[in-house]
Structure formats: structure tokens, C-alpha cells
Amino acid sequence: MSKSYAGVVALTGVDLDVRAGEAVGLLGQNGAGKSTLVKIISGAEQPSAGSVEISGERVRLSSPAVARASGVHTIYQELSVVPQLTVAENVFLSDLPRRGPSVDWRELRRAARETLRDLGFEIDVTRRVRDLPLAQRQAIEIAKAVHSEAKIVLLDEPTAALPQPDAKKLFALLRRLKSEGVSIIYVSHRLDEVYDICDRITILRDGRQIATRPASSVHQDDAVRLMIGDKLVGGMLGQAASEKQPRINPRGAGFTAGAPALEVHALSDGALLENISLRVMPGEAVAVTGLVGSGQAELAACIFGGRPRSSGEVLVDGKPLAPGSPRRSIASGLGWLPEERKLQGLVLSMSVAENLTLASLRSVGMWGRLRRRLEQTLAETMAANLRIKTRGVAQRVGDLSGGNQQKVVFGKWLLARSRVLIVSEPTRGVDVGAKEEIYREMTAFLAGGGSMLVSSSEIDEALMCDRIYVLSRGRIVAELAHDDTDPDELVSFLR
């Protein structure tokens, strides 16, 4: 299977097979091609090359409806239930029982109740789905698959928002489906779950199939290495034999003087993050790393105030920061380069100048009015310093490349005179040249006395920092120092 988008290759020659009654885990980092393959199998995307066979017959999955009719049922992380309808209506949405021209409501409720009961769920089928907890909504999705006599059930990050007891119920349901001959394709970043439920694993990296092996024959550490590949071996591990590993901070080690620039005490969000404590000393670059889905993005948002925290404390320069208030975070000297820069870091319809000054409007305003000439001057100076490639600061920021957009977000916080930056996935989706320039600006910020918390699922980026916190399933499982870190040891914590 191959897929290209406007000349950009997303998948190249990927083969995936799953037998009746078998579960195959699909593994890979962000950008590996998992989502593209899922879309092709579910009928949401058409391949550029390749074919699909179900039970030995070639089929063309031209739409999700055709895929379902062919026996493929996909359960996404964002469930496709209709919240306003009842449980019974959702289970039989595409096949409502009829009595003449009308819906047979009594038979609908009876059949839905029986289907769910067979799966081990006692749910009031007359309730609106919007009033149910997530675990029961997921049970409805599986009931839909059972009712439609699905041959293949594809699950995309099904436990991302499920507590552990509900996840165990889901695994029990999947084992039952396997015992009944249903094929399972299981996509998850949680390796322990994949190894618990899957018979074989297929690993993708950079749009290519790296390995397909029995799960029992691949240690989890080896699976991580196969997922990361050259990003680790050719980047940091390839240089690990040298006397010094590359370091983003020119000031070296020994950050012990004074109060921490940023401190987090026992932070939880009531969903994923649990009892997180960390510190960033003045002038220090600290990484938070883990496999995608471990909680790095949520932690960054919680610290900055873009996501509510249920407990815990955040301090900037020793002073407590009020929860849920990005405005106060900015006033305290804290800046955030979010993972989703287009959604959270930029206003794409506005100009480069307007985006650069967005966090420092008081500096460019007077008596409630913007001083456009000053805004332009500040923006032009910052654009020149950061080498932002643009036709001019009046250009829409949405028209810039990914690397130049990231530079605009970085420049926004430099203009706001931020002393502490939370940098989430700083080089994701940018080319090699832009990546080097972003690293150079991060180094310059640290050299000027700034402090930085780098949230990244890229191991080589984490290894460039002074200290590293390893996050797994919302908890910190290790704290490592740059000079003492064995990359193999770091990999062993990534589960």
C-alpha cells in the first residue's frame, strides 16, 4: 500500500495482513503513516497504489460506508456515536427494525438490550448517549460492530481517555471477539496494551514497514528502537561514542543557584497526569520525553494554564501561578510554544507582524489603540533576527512554511520578554534546515539567561537537554542527567 499527498509520500509499499481470530498491533511514532493506513482500510482515503483483500477477494473500499458493508468496522479515539440519540438507536443506526413503514421501537430496544447484554454490559438502552460515560459509549461502538457482523474491527487509540478498569473491560471484549473469529487491528502508543492483546505487531517508520513479527518474539525495548530508528541511532546514538553528546545549552551543567525558574509540585489533571513534580533552574534546559500519548502535551498545557489542573501547584521564580490563566502566565514571564502551532500558537488569517506582537499588545498600544508603525518596526527587527522567510511582515502567517511559522511563535515570546519557555515538539513538521535554525534560536535564548522546558517525543531532542524527565502514562518514571545518561537506559523507560 502506498499513498502520496500532492507529491509528499505518506506510505510506501506497506503490507499488512490479519488472520481470522487474530489481533495485529500497529506501532509507530507520529508521522510514521499509521493514520494514513487506518484511513485507507476504513475507506476514508484511497491509496495511490496497492490493493485490499478481504477473505481472499479484492475489494475497493471507496468510502467508509463501503468499508462497513465489506465487514470493516473502525472505532476511532473520537467516537462516532450520535450523542443526541438513544443507546438503542445508535446500536442499530444503519439497520433500524421496521414494522411496515414505521420503526419497531419495541423490537429495537429488545435487540439492543440483548446485544449489549451478550457483551457483558447492562446499559439502559433508552438513555441518550450524551449522558453516558466514555466506557459505555465505547461499548456501544463495539455493539455496533457485533450487530453489523464485522469481520475486521480496527481500533485507533481506544484507551486514550479510559481509566484502567474500563480499559480491562475493553480488552475482555476484544478477546471475546477474537475467540469468535473476528480480526482485530489495534493502533496504540501504549506498548503494554499492544503486547497484552495482540498476537503480532507491525512497525511503521517514516511511511515504511520496518517489521512484522510475533509479539512474543520482540522485546518492548527492541520495538521502541525499531519505531525510533535512525532518529536515534543516526542522531544521538551514532554520536554517543564521542567524548561529549551534543548539548543545546552552551552554559553546560551545574544549575543549582537560587530558586527554580519553574517549579511544578504534585500536579494532576484528573484525567491523565498524576502527581507530576519537576523543576527548571535558571538558565537550564530540561526535557520531558516519552512516547507520543504519554502526557507531554497535556503537561505543557496544564503548566501554562491552557488546560485545567485538578491539584498541584506551579511556581515561576518562586511565586505561585494561578491555575487556568494564560494571561497571568504571560505576565509572570512564562511563554508556551504549543505542539499544535496552527491551532494554538498562531492566528493563521492574521499577518506575521500581528502574530509576533500578539503576546505583547501593551507594548505596541497606547490609550487603547495599536501603534501600527511601532508594531511593524518591532516585527521587522524580530523577523530579521530569526531569519523568517517572508515577503514582508504584512504577509499572512498562514502562507508561511511550517519552519517559518514556528519561528514566528518563538519570536512572539521573545518580544513578550518571556524568561521561561515551554517548548512543545519544537521541530515537528519542519525541514532539516529550519530545524537547525530553531535549535540555534533555542541556544541563543538560553545563552541570554532564559530557562526552557522542552516537551518532546523525539529522543535526540531530549538528549540535547541538561536534564531529562521521562513520562509514561501520565507519570514521571525517571529523571536523568545529560552527562550521565546512557541512551539505551533512556529507551528502556519508554513504554
UniProtKB/TrEMBL annotation:
Cited CDD domains: ABC_Carb_Monos_I, ABC_Carb_Monos_II
Keywords: ATP-binding, Cell membrane, Membrane, Nucleotide-binding, Repeat, Sugar transport, Translocase, Transport
Domain ABC transporter, chain residue ranges per copy: 1-231, 248-494
Protein's name in the database: Sugar ABC transporter ATP-binding protein
GO molecular function, one term: ATP binding
A Pfam family the protein falls into: ABC_tran
Domain of life (superkingdom): Bacteria
Phylogenetic lineage: Bacteria, Bacillati, Actinomycetota, Actinomycetes, Micrococcales
